[in-house]
Every structure is written in structure tokens, then in C-alpha cells.
């Protein structure tokens, strides 16, 4: 099981699945280049909103950065847990065929770890603010491919890739 299996990023450039160490924003701040950001753009955003860059801060700067990243076609996925019910929330700019394949790869990866294979997956497309719902196992079955082809990268390895 992955260290943190309640939050993921799917990179727009190659469809690789990133597992942040704890929060989505941590991965963006730690490795901004992977998300088409810079240290300076992140610093300026926090300064603009007069907020701390502390990783546990859930303010407007964090939201602005996350929206910028998603609008650049990176996909954000998080698990929501309510009592005995779980669902997955996916934020993406728009749902193209390429992104459907990436999401199917993610679903195939996470399915063996999921408590509920019938969990809802809510897709929120920012382009037109629409939400659609599917089921985790159906998303996994949408495309067939070898599970071994899926590239999973923990945040610590992503940092090494971008600092070479």
C-alpha cells in the first residue's frame, strides 16, 4: 500500500501518478517545476494573499496555486471518508480521452487498496464547472492495459528527478 493513499496528482506531461507525502500543496511547493510553477511564483502568491507558506495552511494562496496547477491540466485526486462511506474527488480542467486513460490507470492502481470498489468517483471539470459521477471499479475497467505500465512516483523521488 502506498504511504499516503488518500491524495494523488497525475502529471499532465506524462500521466505519471505522484503520491504527495501528506498534502497536495506539499508536492507543488517541494517540486514546483513538476507542476509548471516556480519557487518565485509560489512565494509571490503567498505574499499577495499575505499568508504564511506553512504546509498546514488552508488559505486563499493555497487555493490559488492549486487552481493554477489544475488549470494547466494536472489532475488532483483525493479520498473523502465519511463514517463507513468513502468517495474520491477528482479535479481536472477538462475530461479528454488522454485524461480518461490516466484516470483509468490510477483507478487500476488504487483498486487493490480500496476498502470499497464501488466507491463513487466525482469528476469536477473546471472548464465548465460540471460534476459527473462514476464508480471506482468501472473507471478501472474503462481501458485495458498492463498494470505494470503505470508509473507511480513518491514525492521524495519526484524531488530527486527535478534536482538532477
Question: In a nutshell, what does this entry contain?
Answer:
The protein has 164 residues and is an alpha/beta fold. The chain has six helices and seven strands; from the N terminus they run E-E-H-H-H-E-E-H-E-E-H-E-H. Helix 2 (39-48) packs across helix 3.
SSE order, as H and E? Answer: EEHHHEEHEEHEH
Structural class determined from secondary elements: alpha/beta
**Integer average pLDDT:** 87
* Largest sheet: spatial strand order: 6-5-4-3-1-2-7
Cα(first) to Cα(last) distance is 28 Å
Uncertain runs: none
- What is the domain total for the residues? 1
- Strand coverage percent: 15-25%
Shape: globular
Helices, by number, come to 6
Largest sheet data: 7 strands, mixed
Number of strands: 7
Q: What is the CA-atom radius of gyration, in angstroms?
A: 16 Å
Can you give the helix content as a percent range?
A: 25-40%
Protein architecture, described:
It is a single chain. This protein has one domain (7-162). The chain is an alpha/beta fold. A seven-stranded mixed β-sheet has the order 6-5-4-3-1-2-7. The protein starts with 6 loop residues before the first strand and ends with a helix. The protein is built from six helices and seven strands, in the order E-E-H-H-H-E-E-H-E-E-H-E-H. 35% of the residues lie in helices and 23% in strands.
Write the layout of secondary structure elements.
Layout: E1 7-10, E2 17-19, H1 24-30, H2 39-48, H3 60-71, E3 75-82, E4 85-92, H4 97-110, E5 120-125, E6 130-135, H5 136-141, E7 152-154, H6 155-162
Helix pairs in contact: 2-3
Amino acid at each position: 500500500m502506498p504511504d499516503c493513499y488518500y491524495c494523488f496528482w497525475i502529471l499532465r506531461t506524462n500521466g505519471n501518478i505522484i503520491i504527495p507525502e501528506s498534502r497536495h500543496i506539499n508536492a507543488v511547493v517541494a517540486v514546483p517545476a513538476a507542476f509548471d510553477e516556480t519557487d518565485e511564483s509560489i512565494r509571490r502568491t503567498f505574499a499577495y494573499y499575505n499568508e504564511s507558506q506553512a504546509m498546514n495552511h488552508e488559505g486563499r494562496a493555497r487555493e490559488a496555486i492549486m487552481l493554477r496547477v489544475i488549470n494547466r491540466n494536472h489532475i488532483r485526486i483525493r479520498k473523502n471518508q465519511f463514517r463507513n462511506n468513502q468517495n474520491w474527488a477528482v479535479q481536472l480542467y477538462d475530461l479528454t480521452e488522454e485524461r480518461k486513460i490516466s484516470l483509468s490507470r490510477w483507478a487500476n492502481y488504487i483498486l487493490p487498496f480500496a476498502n470499497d470498489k464501488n466507491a463513487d468517483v466525482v469528476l469536477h471539470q473546471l472548464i465548465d464547472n460540471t460534476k459527473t459521477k462514476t464508480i471506482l471499479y468501472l473507471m478501472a475497467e474503462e481501458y485495458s492495459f498492463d498494470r505494470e505500465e503505470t508509473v507511480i512516483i513518491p514525492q521524495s523521488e519526484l524531488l530527486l528527478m527535478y534536482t538532477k
